[in-house]
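thought: fold this chain, then report.
action: predict
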Amino acid sequence: MSVLSGKKVLLGVSGGIAAYKTATLVRLLIKAGAQVQVIMTPASKDFVTPLTLSTLSKNPVYSTFLSEEGENAEWNNHVDFALWADLMIIAPATANTLSKMVNGNCDNLLIATYLSAKCPVYFAPAMDLDMYKHSSTIASFNALRDFGNIIIPAETGELASGLSGEGRMAEPENIITFLERDLESKLPLKGRKILVTAGPTYEAIDPVRFIGNHSTGKMGFDIAKAAANLGAEVILVSGPTHLQLKNSNITLESVTSAQEMYDTCHRYFMKLTFVFECATQFAIPVNSNLWTQPPKSTAHGFVFVIYRIGGHAHQGQMQIL
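observation:
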């Protein structure tokens, strides 16, 4: 699952030939699971139609402060757009738009929304070779970096003028990759390794019957998913359950018995940052080697316990029961 899934993305489109690429960019953002709202400068509509971007984003596209239909006029509130967004992307960002961003020249809806944004702002420059290298453009880049904005570097290749060099807007696929890598690098659990136990265990009485419990595993699976979405590498050790998870950050280890869960957890235990023990009542055979001193036998040879896998946490590790 992409880190962009569920994100509210505000896409600002300015008036350059690279604006035609925004149709693909919107489609890729939607495919990644993002919600997309497009704001265009008036000049950008000469290169790509609002209808195209509205169809792909499944949202109305705005380019003016007022939307007029017949005798009714509706205010397009730039502050609401800015507060809605989890991140803002300005692509293509022309030399004109970059200069307005730096100087606060608020003469269109896109710049007004940019100036109101509290979310991270990314911009993908697009212009001809000499414009890209001009000292005023370089000054705009540096000023925007100082503002905390993040540049998606232009690429080298054939330009609309017929020249070849640096200044092409990054390809939509590369913009998505850049966004995902940057967002992932800032996740709070990035680089952490977490183990979560979930679900029941089944202990065989004979080839037909077993003793278990009614644990569904939902809590453990939800914890694993939340940790993975925050950037952690998750080992999910689960007893028998109907639940399923698809997440590239989660490794699912399926077990049946308490002994299998114990052995699987201890293979990973010393490499972990956090251990979430979603306590499950296990049925453990009296003759299991999990017991330091075997308890007295019961009628069926089983003892019911709340079983902890961890023992003592090592330095730098936290166990959460």
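thought: worth noting. The chain has two domains: 8-185, 193-320.
final: tokens above.
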